[in-house]
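Record type: monomer structure entry
Structure origin: computed from sequence
Chain ID: A
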Amino acid sequence: MDFALTDEQRALADSVRSFLRDRFGLDQVRASYEDTAGTGDPDVLRKAAADSGWLAVLVPEEHDGLGLGLLDAGVLARAFGAGVAPGSWSTTLLAGEAIRLGGSADQQATWLPRIAAAEAVATVALRGPGGSWSPAGVAVTAEGGRLTGTANHVEYAHVADVLVVAATEADGVGLYLVAPDAAGVTVQVQDGIDRTTRLSTVTFDGATGERLSDSSAATLEGLAERGAVLAANDLAGIARTALTMTIEYDKTRQQFGRPVGSFQAIKHHLADLHVGVTMAEHAALYAGHAVDTDAADRAMAVSVAKVKAADAALATTRAMIQYFGGIGFTWEHDAHFFFKRAQRLAYAYNDSDWHLDRLAQVWLDPLPAASSVEPTGPTTSDATPTAQTAGVAV
C-alpha cells in the first residue's frame, strides 16, 4: 500500500523551503556559521517560526498549537535539513514534547503556549558525556528536587529559557524543568564541527529542578524516539540537497572535453545514491507515522529510518565533496555545511550501531506491544502502511 503526504503537509514543506530560499539561503547560513560572537539562533528564523507556526505543530490546540503529529514535524525537519538551517527549532520542539508527555496541566499551560508562539527557547539535556540517549546514559542525579551531575551536547542551552533535564532518581528516571541561569547551573559553550547548531556542556551542582510530574523512563525513551525521527528527516533533507547540487554541478563540470556526469562510473554511483536517498526519505516519513499511531512496528520503523537516513546523508555528502573536485574541499565552498551537519546528526539520538542492535533485538523477539507513551497526534494519512510499505509519495 502506498503512503502519501497530504496536500496540507506538502504545502507546509513548501512554505519552509520557499522561506529559506528567499530569506535564509546558503549565504545567510555561512554568515551564521562564521559569526563566532553570535548565538547561532538567528532572529529572522525565530520570527518566521512565530509567524508561521513552525513550533506550534506538536502543541495541542487547547494550548494554542496546531495539534498535528510527528509526521508533520518530520516534514518540517526535512525542509530545514535541506537548507542546513541553523536555529533552536528542533530542540525547542522536543522540549515541548517532554512537557506535553510528562508535565502536569499547570506545567503544560505555563510552557506550551509560549513554545507554540516561539516566545520561549527550550532545550533537552538527556545524556552525560559518552552516554546514550536512554536511561543508561543519564549522568545527572536528583535528590529532593536538587540536581547534580553533567549533561553533554546540549543544544542552545546558552540562549534557552528552560532546560528539560533527565535525572536518575532513587526508583528510576525523571525529567526536570531547570532555569539555565539558576544557582548551581553552569553552561559552558563548546566548539563543534557543525556550526549550524551550538552545543554546551551543562553542569548541575545542587540546582533546583521542577519535576515533570508524570515523567518516567518511558517518557525519556519516547523523547529519544521522537528525536531520532526528527534527525532522520533532517538527514534525508541534507542528503537530497547534497545529491541534487552534485548532479547539477557535474552536468556542467568538464573533464576531457565532456561533462564528468556523463562518465559511466559517476552516473552509476549517483544513481545508487539516489536510490538510497529515496529509501531514506520514505523510511523517515513512515517512522513519524508509526510513532503518531503507536504502530506495532514502531521501534523497528524508527531505527530503520535513523540508520538509512544516516547512511544516505554520509554517503551523499562525501560524494558531494569528491565530485565537486578541488573546490569541494575548501572552506569557501558550501559542501562542508552539509557534510558536517550529517556527521553530527548521524550520532544524534543514538548512532547506527545502537539502532542496528535494537533492530536485531526486534527481529529476534516478537514485535513489542504498543508503547505506554501517549501518541503524538492524529493519523495524518488515510492509508494504513506497514514497515514493508511499497512506496511513499513525497
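Annotation 1: The chain has a mean pLDDT of 90.
Annotation 2: Residues 203 and 381 are 43 Å apart (CA to CA).
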